[in-house]
Amino acid sequence: MDQYEKVEKIGEGTYGVVYKARDRITNETIALKKIRLEQEDEGVPSTAIREISLLKEMQHGNIVRLQDVVHSEKRLYLVFEYLDLDLKKHMDSCPEFGKDPRMIKTFLYQILRGIAYCHSHRVLHRDLKPQNLLIDRSTNALKLADFGLARAFGIPVRTFTHEVVTLWYRAPEILLGSRHYSTPVDVWSVGCIFAEMVNQRPLFPGDSEIDELFKIFRILGTPNEDIWAWIPAKELQQEVHLSMNTSRILGLYPDKAIYPSS
């Protein structure tokens, strides 16, 4: 770790701590993600191994770049390119952002490019949210970050855990307990982020899984076995049944126009 000098702490979570740091050799500003190993009886956490292995394979302009991995006895450091802004902070600091269709489309395009690259390499991100979308202030380049929950997938579709994705951006099939899902769960998250950029507030801000489903069904209607054959009828009957009402969707954005009139 002698090569890197910590400047300040910029984030913290269950995984560990993220620091703004400086490379003493190149004088480059970088981000250091410190993974705690003290309580890991089995060594390096699987989320860290997964993130390292996937990011080493993926090189794309809209995916954050992993530059180095430093492993000591009780610490694991991931060295990333430094981006000091995420989409959540950008939206919070720019009240007029939702009125700028050009910038919204620019960011949405980059999110879709990044996730299309992931999917073409058979990788599900599984944790897309504004906080995990980093922005370069100088160029407005947007990059997908935090691949700790990402998974490789193949054919046939594998069985995954349903405990993924921050609640507000979680696809209904995961909320309903499906363990057989694929790329649409990321696309759902992108749609929620798109709506949040336009409206400057989360689309489905549920405070529990059932409340999240209720908010989704209130706008989009309740799915049935004709739509999702894998959902047991008795499971659907336990959820809130609401009829489809597209006017509710339009009502969320009464004065929004993403596509300028010609």
Automatic annotation (TrEMBL):
GO molecular function: ATP binding; cyclin-dependent protein serine/threonine kinase activity
The entry's keywords: ATP-binding, Cell cycle, Cell division, Kinase, Mitosis, Nucleotide-binding, Phosphoprotein, Serine/threonine-protein kinase, Transferase
Record carries keyword Ion transport: no
UniProt cross-references to PROSITE patterns, sorted A to Z: PROTEIN_KINASE_ATP, PROTEIN_KINASE_DOM, PROTEIN_KINASE_ST
Pfam families: Pkinase
E.C. no: 2.7.11.22
Catalytic activity: L-seryl-[protein] + ATP = O-phospho-L-seryl-[protein] + ADP + H(+); L-threonyl-[protein] + ATP = O-phospho-L-threonyl-[protein] + ADP + H(+)
Positions that bind ATP: K33
Residues passing through the membrane, by range: none
Annotated Protein kinase domain residues: 4-262
EC top class named in words: transferase
Top-rank taxon, per record: Eukaryota
GO process terms (BP): cell division
Record family assignment: Belongs to the protein kinase superfamily. CMGC Ser/Thr protein kinase family. CDC2/CDKX subfamily.
Protein name per Swiss-Prot or TrEMBL: cyclin-dependent kinase
Originating organism: Theobroma cacao (Cacao)
